[in-house]
Specification:
Number of strands: 15
Shape: globular
CATH superfamily: Phosphatidylinositol (PI) phosphodiesterase
CATH class: Alpha Beta
Radius of gyration: 18 Å
Number of helices: 7
Helix content: 25-40%
Mean pLDDT: 91
Low-confidence stretches: 1-6, 8-27
Number of domains: 1
CATH architecture: Alpha-Beta Barrel
Largest sheet: 11 strands, mixed
Length: 294
Amino acid sequence: MTQLRGLDGHTPATVQPALRPPRAGSTRPLVESTEWMGALDPSLRLDALTIPGTHNSGATRGGRWVACQHHGIRDQLEAGVRYLDIRVRHHRGSFRVHHNQFFQGLTLDDVLETCRDFLQGHPTESVLLCLTQEFSRSDAAALARTWSRLRARFAGLVRDSRRVPTLAQARGHVVVVTRSAGFAGLDHSGWQVSDDWRIDSARLWDSRKWPGVTDHLRRARAARGDGRMWSCHASSNGLWLTPLQAANRLEPLLTRHFDELPERGEGHPPERNGIVLLDFITPQQTRQLWGRNL
């Protein structure tokens, strides 16, 4: 067993191996957040899963309209997050993690080092890393040159193929997703995406944001097997509704949404909701999401 800091309070937590004896009367094993992918069929493609993600994963600074997460990258991964949304400023031949103009005290090197360390300890897992240029306007060629040098430093870790991998192919790797020309990887522009993020009031959140989230999740489940990646940004930001206020509004409703879905029964394939990106994610939300695969 290993020791780590818990996402909810940074207190020591004990992590068991990924698979533990099943509950009485069940053949389904208990699974831990650190290695939930290891409990799945390795032939499954990533587009067949429900994957917990964080929006603006590196944004822990900048004030109430800028910060989007309470906890750092390592804590997010240990809680079960497997999709990181990283916004980078291209600055003097390096990539600095930003949210708009606010530097977050991290570089892309730091993020990749954290992912590498986590995957070395949990080789059944994979991390999807979505890269977007933010607060800089470098052309694709300049981004590609810097990315090529950084990728060489992390040779063997980074997978930047344009083909959606199976779990067997992805395990132990950082699977790159690109939203900016110059980074190689899965092309986000071809995904089925819900990202209605500019929500200025609670009234607008109730009337537009939440119905949009639930509609997207229903369609993702119904279209399982379509061979496409689905991504739902359940986060939002607005003049009268900060990211934290929106996240607090979302949490009980999203919990109820999944709790009210029919039981799938053992032996059924994963329930594909796609990637679900949250602000100020909690361990309970993460577990509920990855549990849809089991």
